Amino acid sequence: IAATQPRTDWHLKENGREHHTSKFSSEELIVRRGQAFTITFNGTERPEQNLIFIAETGPKPSKATKTLATFDISSTVSKEGWSAVLQSSSSSSVSISISSPHNAVIGRYRLSVQSGSSSPQSLGTFVLLFNPWSSGDDVFMPNTAECEEYVLEEFGIIFAGNKNHISSFGWNFGQFQGDILNICLSIMDRSLYYRQDPITDVSHRHDPRYLGRVLSAMVNANDDQGVVLGNWSGKYEGGKNPSSWTGSGEILQSWKKSGYKPVKYGQCWVFAAVLTTVLRCLGIPTRTITNFSSAHDADGNLRVDEFYDADGNHLERGADSVWNFHVWNESWFTRNDLGPSYSGWQVLDATPQEESGGIYQCGPASRHAIKEGEVDLDYDGPFVFAEVNADCMYWNYDSATGKKTLIFSKSTEIGASISTKAVGRDNRVDVTRDYKYEEGSAKEREIFKKARKKLGLEDKFDPTAPKQEEVVQKPDISGKFKVAGSLEVGKDVNLLLVLENLQSDAKTVNVNMTAWSTLYTRRRVNQIWKDSISVTLAPKEEKQFPIKIKYPEYQQQLTTDKTIQVTALCHVEDGIQVLVKRNITLDNPAIDIQVLGEAKVNKELLVEVTFTNPIDAEVKDCVLQVEGSDLLQGILELRIPPLKASEKSSTKFKLIPSEAGPKHLLVNFSCDKFADIKTFKMVNVIN
């Protein structure tokens, strides 16, 4: 018998159930480390005697790098290494329970068995993943509802818009679909770290801290031909507009199909969503986080400088910027390198913003360390701290003389309404308090000073703490923009500029106003409107000035981010300038999904999507994109005939759900006048 190849029964169903891997649709065994799995094989004579098992992974397996394990049958599970315990045996087959250590390297293993002095025989391959359900694992998450959400849930909600007006859209992470696991394994094998030293790289794959950092580099295309190519130009020829994606599957599949060429194009939420898919797939609990008014501090001084000309136009000077929102990740694991209080949620960011260690990667930064201002701890603390805490400086810049004058500074602007999806529900949860102490509190300023000190900035100019001899002149007036009415694409934008005289004598003010279409990063794209007014304010008087930006004025200029920045630079006679600004995000019109009938596994289900054209002009080039894990394979694309003014369209299509449970259907509608109108619907599928 010994000469024949053993036949292996991997007990896919039972092992999958025990290891929380049954959602993978694979013929290969997929299990989690630190937990026993059972296999049965035949073809060995006198099976229970001197069987030796060999488990190996990577290009050059060795015991020294923990990528090779040999173990025989023992009566108990080993605390340290791999072990095999006999379950049952007959004259022709043997059942063995195999356990891997809690800190085993993850990846694809080759398993073979050797009987006596004969040469080893292959039993086949299996994939080993992280195990958040096991208390010995670095990614152990004691709350099982959180494991369900952050490892097993294939649907997510990403928050966007701006801090005055938070919006959200669904995303299909799809980590258990088709070939995604194999693609995730190949991402690891294409990293710079692997290419430079494959043996060392594989030996570090037991460590979620190491893999999180490597994968934050691989999800962006910079340096390493990674998965997604970023583009923040507002022009997306030769690729897909970042706001048109609805899930990670299409992106990861395209990357593989093209022979591992970066997929065009992504912006922050795309990088974060793809990283979520990859890390959840490998078993590291992960979620997306949205930070509103997010600072990109390029020079590491915990300060963001913005420059304006005399007309109130925002100037592209200096590398610092403030984004309406920015999306990154948090992953859950212990920080043995820092100590127990720094374990838990760790910030990872795959968006290529600044280099770290010579390549575009960011994190893991302990969220607790960020809150406490411990910016000197690994990795990338200063950058992440600045994203949520930087102070803002607004300057007037005269290009003729090169002179810059400080208009004002603000320490409470950055890092607002930090958001993530709730566990088991579609609500928003605010986690701002987990990143910083209350804005404006003494504790928050104390932490800010501590961070400055650690970075050697304590002697540098601190705008928020003026010394007696350089007290900044107080402004004579205050101003703000108020929104009057709804902010919707296709409708006029109505605002009020509210100016108030703070002094007890009359003031004359010359106001230069501009409105620009921008990207969500506040990068200006097109000027939409400008105007100037001269006003006199009586002592302590408040006046409102209505502003209307008509739809035809902005329609051609609007970016797919649907964002407009309005500024008013107020020149007060004999006083200092006052800058009033507001970033507004317009809402798309609504689109509706109706599920007609009951959703059952393997039965056709009819779905109807309706959209009403809200503008008094025809819309054409209408396309509907539909996707949803376990509801349909891949992406359904439907072309819809043009719609006249106020006309309603109804599109019906069929799905065949493949698995029971709560599933999410995601829809994306685009036409020549509206880009990427998104919605989602939960569909409860029964057996």
From TrEMBL:
Catalysed reactions, semicolon-separated: L-glutaminyl-[protein] + L-lysyl-[protein] = [protein]-L-lysyl-N(6)-5-L-glutamyl-[protein] + NH4(+)
E.C. no: 2.3.2.13
Limits of the Transglutaminase-like domain: 260-352
Highest rank taxon of the organism: Eukaryota
The UniProt record lists the keyword Acyltransferase: yes
Pfam families recorded: Transglut_C (PF00927), Transglut_core (PF01841), Transglut_N (PF00868)
Similarity comment: family membership: Belongs to the transglutaminase superfamily. Transglutaminase family.
Name of the molecule in the record: protein-glutamine gamma-glutamyltransferase
Organism field: Urocynchramus pylzowi
